[in-house]
Design a protein that fits this description.
The protein is an all-alpha fold and 250 residues long. Helix 5 crosses helix 6.
Length: 250
């Protein structure tokens, strides 16, 4: 049964504060209305991937959607919709999280703000439960808040992360809200401390020793086991005193 979105009160103030200047917290705003060259469109598409996926590998990219966006067959909002409904996003965020956490991810990535407490999580989770993920994504992208903030051709971004009255801004969404829930991070072995030692030992290619460098031979020598062989010590019971001690004749 389809139910309407439950009512909830807005409790997060940052996204509701008007910007003081022309730009929102000095954020880089990517809009298809003023991006015309291939390089500018590449920057816009990469910004959309960073906002939705945080990082897209080559096999995660939606090449058909990219082509349609470059040819102006779809809007940025349609491109964002395609990324949210892609196999990569579904596997990385929906399949490995509860509905509440999935809602939190989508609200922060699509609407550019933190959720308004547990009440909004429950309200949107009910939409996911009754209308499915597609119905939930459609309602987010068709909402008045999204249209007013980003319209058809602006890539979503984290709004009002820094306020003039605060020394430190809010932590970026991708850092504050990891992709996997704690259960799946445990299954995958995260966090791992061994990588920190690897980073400390990292040396750039220019600083790596070349052929003939003495440090290479020192490292090779340190890996060799060059223990001196200990002399064999027979027991006293096995010694033949008469045969081993010379007979000193006068």
């Amino acid at each position: 049964m389809t139910i309407p979105l439950l009512a909830y009160s807005p409790t997060c103030p940052n996204s509701r504060v008007d910007a003081l200047g022309a730009r929102d917290d000095e954020a880089i705003i990517y809009s298809a209305d003023d991006q015309f060259s291939p390089t500018e469109m590449d920057n816009l598409i990469n910004a959309a991937y960073r906002q939705i996926f945080f990082h897209a590998f080559r096999w995660d990219r939606e090449t058909i959607l990219e082509s349609q966006l470059r040819n102006r067959q779809i809007t940025v909002r349609d491109f964002i919709r395609g990324l949210l409904l892609s196999n990569t996003f579904m596997d990385s965020f929906y399949n490995k999280n509860s509905n509440y956490r999935f809602v939190e991810h989508c609200v922060e990535r699509v609407l550019g703000r933190r959720v308004y407490g547990e009440a909004e999580k429950i309200a949107w989770s009910a939409i996911v439960m009754t209308q499915g993920v597609k119905g939930f994504i459609d309602q987010l992208l068709d909402s008045e808040e999204y249209i007013e903030a980003f319209g058809e051709n602006i890539v979503p971004y984290q709004r009002r992360r820094i306020l003039p009255s605060r020394v430190l801004g809010e932590m970026p969404s991708n850092i504050r809200l990891p992709r996997y829930d704690s259960y799946h991070r445990t299954q995958l072995g995260f966090p791992q401390g061994i990588w920190q030692e690897t980073v400390r030992r990292f040396r750039s290619y220019e600083n790596q020793p070349k052929a003939g460098d003495p440090s290479l031979f020192r490292q090779m020598a340190s890996r060799l086991n060059l223990r001196a062989a200990s002399p064999e010590r027979p027991s006293l019971s096995q010694l033949d005193i008469e045969a081993t001690v010379p007979n000193r004749s006068r």
